[in-house]
Amino acid sequence: MGHRHARLGVAPHAAAVAKGPFFPEDGEERRELIEHLEANGYNLLREGANHSTYANQVKTIPVKRHRTLDRITANEICKQAGLKTRF
Questions:
Q1: Tell me, what CATH number does 14's domain have?
Q2: How do residues 10-68 score in pLDDT, each as one tens digit?
């Protein structure tokens, strides 16, 4: 383990995977996550400074307003929404 990673208690490759952009080479972007939410009954509730908020009859989900999201964040948003992880 490298100095920085040893201090964090993670393997060097784990830190690199967690930080990577969300499928930029595959064209997977925030809009695809939004399409997935909307296909499952979520609608745009409001736009904040840093997040868009989507809601259905039961849950309200904040979605970061970045062009690309990392895979972990996209799957966490799906979990919060009660959907199968897709990414």
A1: 3.30.920.30
A2: 555 544 444 444 444 444 589 999 999 999 999 999 999 999 999 999 999 999 988 88
Domain interval for residue 70: 3-80
Q: 49-74 burial, b if ≥16 CB within 10 A, otherwise e?
A: eeebebbeeeeebebeeeebbbbebb
pTM score over 0.85: no
- Report which DSSP code applies to 46: E
Please tell me the total count of domains within the chain: 1
Residue 16 lies in a domain: yes
